[in-house]
Amino acid sequence: MKVGDTHYRSIWFDGETGRVKIIDQRWLPHEFRVVEIDTLDEFAMAIRDMWVRGAPLIGATAAYGVAVEMQRDASDAVLDAAWEQLHETRPTAINLRWALDEMRQMLAPLPESERAAAAFRKAEEICDADVETNRLIGVHGLELIRQVAATKKPGEPVNILTHCNAGWLATVDWGTATSPMYHAVEAGIPIHVWVDETRPRNQGAQLTSWEMNRHGIPHHLIVDNAGGHLMQHGEVDMVIVGTDRTTALGDVCNKIGTYLKALAAHDNQIPFYVALPSSTIDWTVNDGVREIPIEERDGREVTHVFGQLEDGSVTSVQISPDGTPGGNPAFDVTPARLVTGLITERGVAKASGEGLLGLFPERRNAA
């Protein structure tokens, strides 16, 4: 996607400097910063402290982290240690483990002398594949938007509600939930997006709104609790969100608050779609509520907000009384029964075991 006249991915290897670069998302929407990360500790910090975020981008970042560490020391011990250090950073997003497994399985049989170059090639392949996967998610999701648009009056927009940021900033490019939106705009279908603020990190307010602004997509930023009201009054036509882990039976784990949106959509007979790359499916898990580990983040994210003051300075401000602790579960699980469909790179599946296996039959014997 473009920022100004320049096309950016959210992470890339700069051949001129020999360094991996990322968009440091902590500063958006107020500042656009590109930074280099070139040690394993920095890659771990970038993932843990959310310089990068979003399940697909976390996986891509981890892949490059392994590659950089292989430049330093390509031994088996260091490969295993890098896997462990990066895996510990974010427990919920399955793409992290998927990417680390892909790297280790490819590198382990190779001689140490070949590992660094092979690791960078593999990391780039993971990034390129993510871009194409997300493009295809957009192609399939576009057809769902077309179906809704066909029921509207000429020129009347399709009103889409989204939660958190599942945009190109959460992937290498295109995004998951936003990819159908970008494709709809390119196809000339009028849309309007309701952007949940997504407390406590405000990824909707800071990142999704920034993306919508940059691409000229009509949108409104709303507080997290406004979605149900809008649905009751016929102002939401469909919901599209992303996911950090999807079970083999179609439960979806996404940013905290997603479950409540799904309940409201179900009560108002509004289709609730989840957009995901297949790397986000955890085929080893069936019951999302009982089996998916939910990350507990620092309570300070709840008791403080980050923003720009009137003088233009960017700072963190406390909003709670001294001594009040913040509880901060980062994700919740939406049961498959509340999900209308799963938008993947292979098509739209029913949120069920059979629905997923219908698109991914190669998993049938392994399931």
TrEMBL record:
- Enzyme class (EC, first level): isomerase
List the Gene3D superfamilies hit by this protein, alphabetically.
translation initiation factor eif-2b, domain 1 (1.20.120.420), Translation initiation factor eif-2b, domain 2 (3.40.50.10470)
Q: So what does this one do?
A: Catalyzes the interconversion of methylthioribose-1-phosphate (MTR-1-P) into methylthioribulose-1-phosphate (MTRu-1-P).
Q: Which Pfam families match?
A: IF-2B
Is RNA-binding there in the keyword field? no
Coiled-coil regions listed: none
Positions of the catalytic residues: 244
Alphabetical list of PANTHER family matching this protein? METHYLTHIORIBOSE-1-PHOSPHATE ISOMERASE (PTHR43475:SF1)
Q: Which UniProt keywords apply?
A: Amino-acid biosynthesis, Isomerase, Methionine biosynthesis
Question: What gene, per UniProt, encodes this protein?
Answer: mtnA
The GO terms this record gives for MF are: S-methyl-5-thioribose-1-phosphate isomerase activity
Site entry (Transition state stabilizer), positions = 164
Cite the annotated pathway: Amino-acid biosynthesis; L-methionine biosynthesis via salvage pathway; L-methionine from S-methyl-5-thio-alpha-D-ribose 1-phosphate: step 1/6
Q: Which reaction does it catalyse?
A: 5-(methylsulfanyl)-alpha-D-ribose 1-phosphate = 5-(methylsulfanyl)-D-ribulose 1-phosphate
What family does the Swiss-Prot or TrEMBL record give for this protein? Belongs to the EIF-2B alpha/beta/delta subunits family. MtnA subfamily.
Query: What protein am I looking at?
Result: Methylthioribose-1-phosphate isomerase
Q: Where does substrate bind?
A: 53-55, 90, 203, 254-255
The UniProt record lists the EC number as: 5.3.1.23
